[in-house]
Design brief:
Helix content: 40-55%
Distance between the termini: 63 Å
Order of helices and strands: HEHHEHEHHEEHEHEHHH
Strand order of the largest sheet: 3-4-5
Strand content: 5-15%
Number of helices: 11
Structural class: mainly alpha
Largest sheet: 3 strands, mixed
Radius of gyration: 26 Å
Length: 308
């Protein structure tokens, strides 16, 4: 992701927040009272992200940013919003706890400031549960009103970005009605194939033994955003058939033509997006909408004249 951001933004200065944390030994010392030596038990930390950042390093970094009089400064990683203090754009990168755990199992991620990706899942999960997630939750709470965008990083190499106002709207609409969180499924020694068959699960795991729903530490909410164009075909078709039952064959032909047009418009939007940006690609849709509106008004006008 860092490489893609560098390629797209071409920053004059790139700062990775992890470089400004205390040393691993120091972080282990600071967090030891919460992690403890016990295999299972620990203490929910009262530490905050500032407690893990080396204040001397951070001050030098801020001085370096002050000396940067032009271009983009990109700060990325845990604690970036603290290092920056004042920023033009703040993007919160989010990942569900269950996805973090899966990456821990695959030895893909470290705990904050700790080089332990190759350690067992128990060590990483315990530190995450008692320390990392508490610190990040507190930071999220403190910085939430400053967010400009929310970045969903749950699918590898498929980040999804949305502005905070739209995200807030989705949350408000969600709490007004019944909803279900995203369930997760996990293998186990006693697992079988029933859940795989019933729920259409991934074929890769040997079995599935666990299914959790509404466990706050594990589950998440999945929002789907879009313009709703997929609804147009059935709506237009049903309305047209209702208004002109004698022309059912002709209307069906137009629907087939519309589907064929979709096969052309989608690649066209992709081409415009790659060469001119996503905003320009949206104008392709705008042009299609204007054409449909014009055609509807034209036909309606002819119908009115015919009745007169």
């Amino acid at each position: 992701m860092v490489q893609n951001l560098q390629k797209a933004l071409k920053p004059e200065l790139l700062i990775e927040a992890s470089d400004y944390l205390y040393s691993e030994d120091k972080i282990r010392e600071i967090t030891q009272p919460d992690v403890t030596d016990d295999r299972i038990f620990g203490r929910l930390t009262n530490l905050e992200m500032e407690d893990l950042l080396d204040s001397d390093k951070v001050e030098k970094c801020r001085d370096e940013m002050q000396d940067q009089d032009s271009g983009i400064i990109l700060i990325i990683g845990e604690g970036a919003s603290i290092i920056a203090e004042d920023m033009d754009v703040l993007i919160y990168a989010d990942m569900a706890r269950w996805e973090i755990q899966k990456r821990m199992r695959n030895n893909e991620v470290n705990n904050i400031g700790i080089n332990n990706a190759g350690n067992g899942i128990e060590d990483k999960y315990k530190r995450g549960f008692f320390v990392d997630w508490r610190i990040c939750d507190k930071l999220k709470e403190d910085q939430y009103e400053k967010f400009d965008f929310i970045l969903d990083t749950n699918k590898k190499d498929e980040p999804k970005l949305i502005d905070k106002n739209t995200f807030d709207f989705a949350l408000q609409e969600t709490i007004k009605q019944p909803f279900s969180v995203v369930p997760f499924f996990d293998p186990g020694p006693w697992g079988g194939q029933w859940m795989r068959k019933v729920c259409g699960l991934d074929e890769e795991p040997e079995n599935f033994a666990w299914c959790f729903n509404c466990v706050p530490e594990e589950n998440s909410v999945l929002f789907e955003f879009g313009l709703g164009f997929s609804n147009l075909f059935p709506l237009l078709f049903s309305i047209a058939i209702d208004k002109m039952p004698d022309y059912a064959n002709e209307v069906s032909g137009f629907i087939i033509l519309a589907v064929s047009g979709g096969a052309v418009i989608s690649p066209l939007m992709g081409f415009v997006n790659q060469n001119f940006g996503v905003v320009a690609a949206l104008f392709v849709l705008v042009a299609c909408i204007l054409y449909v509106a014009y055609a509807a008004m034209y036909i309606l006008g002819k119908e009115v004249k015919h009745q007169e």
